[in-house]
Amino acid sequence: MKDLGRLKYFLGIEVLRSKQGIFMCQKKYILDLRTEIGMLDCKPADTPMIENQKLYMEEKTELADKERYQRMVGKLIYLSHTRPDIAYAIGVISQFMHQPQSAHMDVVLRIIRYLKGMSGHGVLFIPNGHLETQVYTDADWVGDKGSRRSTSSYFTLVGGNLVTWRSKKQTVVALSSAEAELRGIARG
Question: With a threshold of 0.90, does the pTM exceed it?
Fold first, then answer.
């Protein structure tokens, strides 16, 4: 074993230390991703997804390149380790890995355009002097038009710092918005 000093860059994650705390981001990873797919000079988007956009499998529609879609979504999933702002959008597009359609690919490209304008964002860990745990949850009722299942999301703060976040489709169909919320609370 060899001591290489303080961690600065590891597996695409940049670690910056200051008096305020530790900041983790993937700015170079985003730049490399945009370069790889030819979107270096793309126009930035304001949000990762269009507000209230519902994606589902449409009949008789154009299919996207499956291998390219899977490769791009896989890279975005890895990117979500330091980017909770794209967690929901990644959860939505990863549901269509088996048969992506052109509308799904459009959302992937929009997320990448969003990342261009927000490439310096990440997660900041600040020493707050306490280890109080807080969990926030939310759920949408019948968010998926195809399966009529809801999506639960949660994030956890320890000592005021974000440590976990997730967005996932529920396993059963909720019969009310209250049931969808309770299932979201249970998952959180």
Answer: no
